[in-house]
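Q: Please design a sequence for this.
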């Protein structure tokens, strides 16, 4: 097991496809996400850390939001940081910078950020408490941590398909074996409180097929999860995927996923 837990870019069967998935996941619900930023306290002028920024698409959006503030994007993957530099150039955003770094040993000055954003990081971490201690150190007093993540208990699809439920469970077990945790969403409240954050709160924002369309919804729900299965499990999952696709063609197919937004403040 490495410090990257259950997410190791470069090891995916189709890395280019995974990059596309990250881009799609960063753009499809961006207006909803911006609303989340506003309600959790992100303001112009702030100094922001986008922790585990991946390919940097979201860091560039955050940079636009903070105006004369700034965003530091940090990620353990050199390959993704290289993509993030390209994103900065093509998006023509000046107030964002990127560097490689590990959430378990953050080489950043203490008391230096107003807002730390961790988007789909914690589901991959074996040692969330160590990560939270490091975040607390780099936040300014009064600064806010905002964690956005998922919880598989809050994923559903109709018409009810045993195949969908089985597939989600198998992938969740696969991610656990790699050091991840697909049920992290509902555990974040306790984790932040135990770590010493104040005013901790968890809200759930549903994203449904009405927001994304059925095809996009299933793309986001299925692609990454396939990577959590071993070779044999991938083969065994094929008939389940076929059943899921069939269910998705029903005239009133509808699905939802709960996005957990947990915030906490440094005293
Ligand atoms: C699902 S991706 C999310 C990327 C980005 N936040 C987004 O939402 O598009 C998870 C990210 O966590 C990063 N990561 C995993 N473990 C890490 C660690 N210990 N320190 C820093 N980054 C880590 C991975 O390299 C990957 O970019």
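A: Design:
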């Amino acid at each position: 097991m490495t410090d990257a837990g259950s997410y190791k870019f470069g090891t995916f069967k189709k890395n280019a496809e995974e990059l596309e998935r990250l881009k799609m996941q960063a753009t499809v619900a961006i207006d909803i996400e911006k609303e989340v930023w506003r309600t959790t306290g992100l303001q112009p002028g702030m100094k922001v850390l986008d922790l585990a920024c991946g390919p940097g698409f979201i860091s560039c959006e955050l940079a636009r939001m903070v105006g004369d503030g700034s965003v530091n994007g940090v990620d353990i993957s050199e390959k993704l940081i290289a993509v993030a530099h390209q994103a900065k150039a093509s998006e023509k955003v000046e107030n964002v910078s990127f560097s490689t770094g590990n959430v378990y040993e953050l080489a950043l000055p203490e008391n230096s950020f107003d807002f730390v954003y961790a988007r789909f990081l914690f589901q991959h971490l074996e040692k969330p408490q160590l990560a939270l201690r490091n975040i607390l150190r780099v936040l300014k007093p009064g600064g806010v941590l905002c964690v956005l993540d998922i919880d598989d208990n809050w994923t559903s699809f109709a018409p009810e398909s045993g195949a969908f439920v089985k597939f989600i469970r198998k992938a969740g077990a696969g991610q656990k074996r790699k050091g991840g945790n697909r049920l992290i969403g509902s555990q974040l409240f306790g984790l932040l409180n135990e770590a010493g954050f104040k005013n901790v709160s968890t809200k759930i924002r549903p994203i449904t097929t009405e927001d994304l369309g059925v095809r996009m919804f299933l793309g986001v729900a299925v692609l990454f999860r396939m990577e959590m299965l071993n070779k044999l499990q991938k083969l065994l999952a094929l008939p389940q995927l076929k059943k899921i696709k069939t269910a998705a063609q029903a005239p009133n197919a509808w699905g939802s996923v709960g996005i957990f937004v947990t915030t906490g403040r440094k005293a």
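Q: Thanks. Anything notable?
A: Residues 3-5, 7, 9, 22, 26, 52-54, 58, 75-77, 80, 102-104, 119-121, 124 surround S-adenosylmethionine (CB under 6 Å). The two ends are 34 Å apart (CA to CA).
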